Amino acid sequence: QKKLFELRLKMNEARKANQTAMVTEKKRMEAPPESRGVSKEKWIEERKKKIGKLLDANGLDMTKAYMLDTEEMAETKYKKWEKEPAPFGWDVFNQKSLYNAYKKRTKNIDVDIEEYNKMKEADPEFYREASSLQYGKAPKVSDDKVERMVKELKDRDEKRKSFSRRRRFHDEKDIDSINDRNEHFNKKIERAFGKYTLEIKNNLERGTALPD
User: Does the chain have fewer CB atoms within 10 Å around its N or its C terminus?
Assistant: First the structure.
């Protein structure tokens, strides 16, 4: 019982030490208040400098800062994006839209974990850094994967060709109505009597209609 009691004391001490370390780390990472003598702007500048050093160490620039995010940070960021409205105009080319397009294109892809692990074990520099001499080189891809990629591109092309957005108005069409209800009525009249009045319409447009 004495040993068990001592073990529990050590566990409690270790837990308290971990909690203290977590609180200290959190305070260090959070922006300090103005009362401590360090402004929030200065803290942001120092944080930017730290991020800049990390980017330089990995051979990246500020446009690639998102590559330093962990998986949890990225998921949290993307969940926030999902609550925002749909992109409009030039926003269709932002990071959110590109990420959504990537998810849509890869959701039907089957990943072979065993083959992935074999490739990772066979290549000591599977995760290459910018300073690696193998940077930019890709492992040999099997023919079936190339065929699958080609099929996906062809399917996208066919889907793009078959896509047709319904438009409310046609610029090339003559306006012969004063409101939506009148437009609907004119369409019904045209379906019923259009073939009988076609010659009269053409004569009126050409100016060759003769009075009775």
Answer: C
What is the domain partition of the chain in residue ranges? 1-29, 39-84, 117-160
Rg (C-alpha) for the chain, rounded Å, is: 33
Gap between the Cα atoms of 88 and 97, Å rounded = 10
Asked if 26 and 55 count as a contact pair (C-beta separation under 8 A), the reply is: no
Cβ atoms within 10 Å of 134's Cβ, excluding its own: 13
How far, in Å, CA of 52 to CA of 87, rounded? 30
Which CA distances in Å does 103 have to 2, 42, 149, 152? 57, 38, 15, 14
pTM beyond 0.70: the answer is no
Which amino acid makes up residue 83? K
pLDDT in tens, 136-176: 677 777 888 888 889 988 988 888 888 766 656 666 677 77
DSSP letter for 94, please.
S
Residue 90 DSSP label: G
* CA–CA distances in Å: residue 25 to residues 20, 30, 31: 9, 9, 12
Q: Are 132 and 85 in contact (CB under 8 A)?
A: no
CA distance 95 to 64: 11
